[in-house]
Amino acid sequence: MTAGRHGFLGALAPGHGDRLLAFAQDVSFPAGTRIFEEDGVADRFWIVRSGLVALDVHVPGRRAAVVETLGEGDLLGWSWLFEPYHWQLGALTRAAVSASEFDAQRVRAACAADPAFGLAVTHCVAQVIARRLKATRTRLLDLYGPPA
């Protein structure tokens, strides 16, 4: 692990993390910005450097339910890695966000060209998916499950 790296980048071996960062560009979003909508085209992803992003899920007949809030070091978006490349959740900034933004097509091409890099990225994304699914299930049960 490279000193100072944590979260998603910290989970990658230093060489893989550096390779991934070579595809990054710096972006920022003001508070209250909808970064992406559920079921929209997932053509990029981000690693949050600062700020907060709420992940939400559409609930018919109700307001969107926030299922998790992301912060420094977190991967924002995983749907870019798996067809049909559509967001599974929505994302709204809760505070101003600075992030590293990645073009999904370029990263997928690099993963295909270098199987070790591709496996490392896919493995780390899969860990994020597992945590997000658990958090989503828990949050939805808290909100809409039968009373205890």
Mean pLDDT: 92
**Strands in their spatial order, largest beta sheet:** 1-8-3-6
The Rg value, from CA coordinates, equals 16 Å
CATH class: Mainly Beta
Q: How far from one another are the termini?
A: 43 Å
Order of helices and strands: HHEEEEEEEEHH
What is the strand and helix layout of this fold?
Elements: H1 7-11, H2 14-21, E1 24-29, E2 34-36, E3 44-50, E4 53-57, E5 65-70, E6 75-76, E7 90-93, E8 97-103, H3 104-113, H4 115-144
Antiparallel strand pairs: 1-8, 2-7, 3-6, 3-8, 4-5, 4-7
Descriptive report:
- The protein has one domain (7-142): Jelly Rolls, CATH 2.60.120.
- It starts with 6 loop residues before the first helix and ends with a helix.
- α3 (104-113) crosses α4.
- The model has no long low-confidence stretch (mean pLDDT 92).
- By secondary structure, the chain is α+β, with helices and mostly antiparallel strands.
- The longest helix has 30 residues, at 115-144.
- The protein is built from 4 helices and 8 strands; from the N terminus they run ααββββββββαα.
